[in-house]
Design goal:
By secondary structure, the protein is of the alpha/beta class. The protein has 17 helices and ten strands. The protein has a five-stranded parallel β-sheet with strand order 4-5-6-9-10. Bound molecules: D-arabinaric acid (RAT) and zinc ion.
Length: 419
């Protein structure tokens, strides 16, 4: 196995590995076309992405109330956003630049700055053809969805025998159960589960039955929840009891990992709807407590606050049942993804998954993964070059499988779904 002798050769090998490796995107909000209107794609969806909406509301200030804006049809919302963020000013923010990267990736010319031309392109294709095109372009082999049985639009789709594109993998999302028990209790009662708001009577058995039913129906690759910064484990909340007596035992019985995304403060500005969430500092001691109390369960963890990243990485050094994934949402900007990924490699070697896309609109896979690949190329080149400098040779054949692991394969292995 020939060692690579200098930085230029190492950089070429890393880039070649990143370009040729297929990706497993372990957390998205995408759906296959069989899910109908839940699959979002095209220029109007990209422009009205909630990451961009907040920038629009800041820019228009008092001129346009969110309530009035949200009442408009989507195309009119997109027209306004295009005009304010892309025509009247230079779109230098990450989310705006992301739209242009997607257009370029699809072979459209960002320089024409003409929304009508972009709309025409999307009108000329179908969801299925577009999906095939985008997955091929990005080399995405599998994308894990976010499937919420508490969502009244999604729930009825999961009838017996529902089949969909096998490039999509389901994840059973249970935020409502863990964070909003009174609401979850109402939904479960409507679905004929014998549950009580005070968690008494048959409630715990019934919640276990609910989870088991949905695991059977959906066959998820993991269970998942995003949690507020105030999340504590253990405490005397309904969430702790539900984790202890229902979620984690059921997950263990089915060999399923639990994904926890911690740090989101929902509805800080409720007028902005989905765009109104912020973040806060979370409690990593609770993560350690969970990994200790359920040492046979596997936890996929990501945190939203920049200040929590280092503590989480140190925590992961102590628990082999904790696998860190992704730079989530507000830390998914180039300056921070690079900083965080370097730090994680320094503390954890390869035993984490640097990125997921969190894409809500199919096309966003293009910019999110081209950014991820570029960031990983910079970081891994530095790390392998530093290794070579010690006199320890690195070869192409060794680099390639490690890169593939970092693009989702290691996470799949961790959750017991080796591909
Ligand atoms: O990144 C996002 O789009 C957020 O709105 C959230 O959905 C977050 O990723 C989550 O999964 O809770
Ligand atoms: Zn998400």
């Amino acid at each position: 196995m020939a060692g690579l002798s200098n930085r230029t050769e190492i950089e070429a090998a890393v880039n070649a590995a990143l370009d040729s490796s297929e990706i497993v995107d372990i957390h998205t909000h995408l759906f296959s076309p069989e899910f109908g209107g839940l699959l979002l794609w095209g220029i109007d969806e990209m422009l009205t992405y909630h990451y961009i909406l907040t920038e629009f509301f800041r820019t228009v200030g008092f001129e346009i109330d969110p309530e009035r804006f949200y009442d408009l049809p989507k195309t009119e919302q997109a027209d306004l956003i295009w005009d304010r963020l892309f025509v009247r000013q230079l779109p230098i923010s990450e989310s705006c630049r992301g739209v242009l990267t997607c257009l370029k990736g699809l072979g459209l010319d960002p320089a024409v700055r003409n929304l009508a031309i972009y709309r025409k392109y999307f009108a000329g294709t179908t969801p299925q053809a577009h999906l095939d095109h985008v997955l091929k372009l990005t080399k995405i082999r599998k994308a894990v969805m976010t499937n919420d049985p508490f969502d009244a639009e999604e729930r009825p789709l999961w009838k017996n025998g529902f089949t969909y594109d096998e490039r999509f993998l389901p994840a059973l999302r249970i935020d409502t159960l863990l964070v909003e028990w009174p609401k979850a209790c109402g939904v479960l009662a409507e679905l004929d589960y014998d549950v009580r708001p005070d968690l008494g009577g048959k409630t715990m058995n019934e919640v276990r039955r609910f989870l088991t039913d949905w695991i059977t129906r959906m066959r998820p690759v993991y269970l998942a929840a995003s949690l507020p910064p105030s999340f504590r484990y253990p405490d005397d909340s309904a969430g702790t009891r539900l984790l202890d007596e229902c979620v984690l035992p059921v997950a263990a019985d089915h060999g399923l990992a639990m994904a926890m995304m911690i740090g989101v403060r929902r509805g800080v500005n409720p007028r902005l709807k989905l765009a109104g969430d912020a973040l806060g500092k979370s409690d990593m001691t609770s993560v350690a407590n969970l990994c200790t109390a359920f040492n046979q369960n596997r936890f996929l963890i990501t945190v939203l606050g920049r200040e929590d990243q280092h503590e989480l990485a140190v925590c992961a050094r102590k628990f082999h049942n904790l696998h860190i994934f992704g730079c989530w949402w507000y830390v998914n900007v180039p300056s921070l993804t690079e900083e965080i990924t370097r730090m994680r490699i320094e503390l954890l070697g390869h035993t984490f998954t640097p990125q997921h896309s969190d894409a809500r609109v199919l096309d966003q896979l293009i910019y999110k993964w081209s950014d991820n690949r570029r960031m990983l190329a910079r970081v891994l080149t530095d790390k392998y070059a530093a290794l070579a400098e010690t006199g320890f040779p690195v070869s192409r054949d060794e680099i390639t499988p490690e890169v593939t692991d970092m693009l989702g394969r290691a996470a799949m292995r961790f959750i017991g779904r080796d591909l």
